[in-house]
Specification:
- The protein has 371 residues and is an alpha/beta fold.
- Helices cover 40% and strands 21% of the residues.
- The chain contains 14 helices and 16 strands.
- Strands 4-5-3-2-6-11 form a six-stranded mixed β-sheet, with helices on both faces. Strands 1, 7, 8, 9 and 10 form a five-stranded antiparallel β-sheet that branches.
- Strand 13 and strand 14 form a beta hairpin.
- The longest helix is centred in the first third of the chain and has 18 residues.
Length: 371
């Protein structure tokens, strides 16, 4: 049964779904979900992330990691936790950078380890090959969900690598640098709209009566009643539309609690705003083109902008942890010296490769692109 057939049958039996429920199942369904089965990253895929564009991005994150670790006066046992590692490219570049320049910071080679939070069979295999050189034994869905730590390997620079299906399964008894690059934007969002006669209503997904076709509608729900009662939204004009991601709040709160308990820091890299948006951002991409999120279910990347203001509220509730930023990616990378690094590369590559260096820098730092 296709995901479309599944949702049409489900809605006809139990009623409309909220956007978050649809997004969750389309992304994570074990048999037909986008990330477990169909996710494609890169120029030939549905979307591209900064690490896939150039290893310089991971080098910068690795350098930032060493600076933090040194300033925090932590021992040279550097541990990373990455949520949604994709193909493993970012973690490879981070570990390689820390392994190469770490001795200059610590006076000796640091001991490296990482926890990778992943449930996609496809990505697990790609991560294992990239980080360890080969795939020892393919991981099955049953192994992923039956074993908290379903894979352990030794990788680049003798890094001890462990894979987990959930953040809750990863150890929280030692300092860690938590990395999330375009992870939160894939978590489900609920959508609401302010109306003249009903106040706030929730945007839902329903199915046509005679054909298997999904469409948006609105209903008064328990969640929309809570929005009615929230003073933060009372002054917004009729017609305003907002999104909220409870899962994002939960993840960030969990990271803050881990840092408060054992030390470390979290670096969250994503697109979004540091304020409430009154426009909807939930959308789908296929072959780098924006498409209808209610079509080709499971074959498109679903995403929504991150509300950093909400995340900072969640962090503020955890004693001993402070949120910094957000700042633009361009500002962060520039402060970390990416311009100088690209100048080095530009001077070392053949003339016919220099344009690609310029393109990578502009794509990472331009405000019209990822900057």
């Amino acid at each position: 049964m296709s995901l479309l057939s599944h949702f049409c049958r489900r809605i006809r039996l139990t009623g409309p779904l909220n956007v978050g429920e649809l997004m969750q199942d389309v992304i994570m369904d074990p048999k037909h979900g986008y990330y477990p089965q169909a996710a494609r990253i890169g120029h030939k895929g549905d979307f591209i992330t900064a690490p896939e564009l150039t290893p310089v991005f991971g080098e910068i994150i690795g350098a930032w990691s060493l600076l933090y670790w040194q300033q925090a006066k932590l021992p040279p046992n550097v541990h990373f936790t990455e949520l949604g590692p994709g193909r493993g490219t970012l973690m490879r570049d981070i570990i390689d950078t820390v392994g190469i320049i770490g001795p200059a910071f610590f006076g000796k080679a640091p001991k490296l380890s990482a926890s990778l939070i992943e449930i996609s069979e496809q990505f697990i295999a790609e991560q294992e090959k990239l980080l360890c050189g080969n795939v020892r034994n393919p991981i099955t869905p049953q192994q992923i969900f039956d074993n908290p730590n379903y894979l352990t390997r030794t990788g680049l620079h003798k890094a001890k690598l462990k894979w987990y299906s959930m953040l809750d399964h990863a150890p929280d008894n030692k300092p860690s640098l938590y990395i999330m690059n375009e992870f939160l934007d894939a978590l489900p969002v609920n959508q609401f709209q302010k109306t003249e006669d009903k106040g706030w209503v929730e945007i839902m997904v329903d199915v046509e009566q005679d054909i298997d076709k999904l469409f948006y509608t609105t209903y008064k729900t328990g969640r929309s009643i809570k929005i009615d009662q929230d003073k933060d939204f009372s002054d917004l004009p009729v017609g305003s539309q907002i999104e909220h991601s409870p899962q994002s709040d939960k993840v960030v709160t969990s990271l803050a609690e881990r840092i408060a308990k054992s030390g470390g820091a979290a670096l969250i890299i994503d697109y979004g705003e540091d304020q409430l948006s009154t426009e909807l951002t939930f959308r789908a991409f296929k072959n780098h083109q924006q498409v209808n999120p209610l079509e080709d279910l499971g074959l498109c990347d679903l995403t929504a902008d991150v509300n950093f203001k909400d995340l900072k509220k969640s962090i503020a509730n955890v004693e001993g942890v402070k949120a910094h930023g957000p700042i633009t990616q361009s500002s962060f990378l520039t402060l970390m010296g990416i311009g100088e690094r690209f100048k080095q590369l530009y001077s070392r590559v053949p003339e016919d490769k220099q344009d690609s260096i310029i393109h990578a820098h502009d794509f990472l730092c331009s405000p019209d692109e990822m900057g």
